[in-house]
Amino acid sequence: MLKDITLGQYFPGDSILHRLDPRIKLALTMLYIVALFMAKFVFSYAVMLLFLTAAVAVSGISPRIVVKGMKPLVFIIIFTAVLNIFYTQGETVLWSWKIFTITREGIVLAAFTALRILMLITGTFVLLTYTTSPIALTDALERLMRPLGLIKVPVHELAMMMTIALRFIPTLIDETDKIMNAQKARGADFESGNIFRRARALVPLLIPLFVSAIRRAEELATAMECRCYHGGEGRTRMKQLHLTTLDIAVFSVCLAVFALAAVLGWFGL
User: Fold this and answer.
1) Which residue has the higher pLDDT, 165 or 226?
2) CA-to-CA distance for 156 and 146, rounded, in angstroms?
3) Model confidence at 250, in pLDDT bands (50, 70, 90)?
4) How remote is the C-alpha of 16 from its chain's centroid?
5) Which of left, alpha, beta for 268 (phi over 0: left; psi -120 to 50: alpha)?
6) pLDDT, tens digit, for every residue of 44-87?
């Protein structure tokens, strides 16, 4: 299961999404999330789903990788859908028992909610983390947040911390997997028993994982100090960010798609 988590991983490529300016991808990700939450019913969701399908196809990322990244979220999606089914009030009651009631409106809402979560995670992965390197993401975040520097906000440090945190997710996942394999070799059992017993069996993983994370953080801090890193003051970049015709064209097309989905959602379609 841990190997299925692809959050924070970057897959090199030469697709249109890979070549886009990271600032454009950040802006498109924000607009995609807004448009997705404004979508209400079939037509607006269909527009967003077509856009997401096209984005996955254009990105060059294998659909198998996208589906693999969704596996760890299955429990959350099912749990959210069940809550919507049983606790959504509606006029058409299909089944009722004590405090539990299933309505047609609840089933519809559960389906749309599950679809929204899947599209939200997939779109964020494909538009941003899968196709953008951590260095490019850091530069984009810093450039977009630069106006906050006028009010003494440490923009460079914030961008660096967010990117390092995102980059460390796959590293910590690999470390957790190694610790689990080592403890299994010593007789630990993480797979048998009910869900509470499995959760209790994971407790011994926390201490070595925290120790490993702290050690890696210290090593990273030492490496940055040895390279005379002093924040963003006086720093230059080897690769400068410049908007191209491709960036403007793709942004315009995506903006039109998001506006169409938002308008359809506004009218309840």
Assistant:
1) 226
2) 8
3) very high
4) 20
5) left
6) 999 999 999 999 999 888 888 888 777 778 888 888 888 888 87
pTM of this structure: 0.80
- Cα–Cα distances (Å) from 230 to 132, 157, 185, 227, 233, in that order, read 25, 10, 44, 9, 7
Instruction: Name the DSSP class of 237.
Output: -
Q: What are the tokens at 120?
A: 């939200």
**Residue 72: per-residue pLDDT:** 75
The three-class DSSP label of residue 103 is strand
Res. 255 pLDDT band, cuts 50 70 90: very high
Number of Cβ atoms within 10 Å of the Cβ of 41:
14
In contact, 125 and 7? CB cutoff 8 Å: yes
Instruction: Quote the Cα angle for 33-47-56, to 5°.
Output: 70
**Which residue in this structure is represented by tokens 């059992």?**
189
Whole-Å CA distances, 253 to 10, 58, 257, 260: 25, 14, 6, 11
Q: Can you read off the two tokens belonging to residue 139?
A: 């530069």
70, two tokens: 């969704």
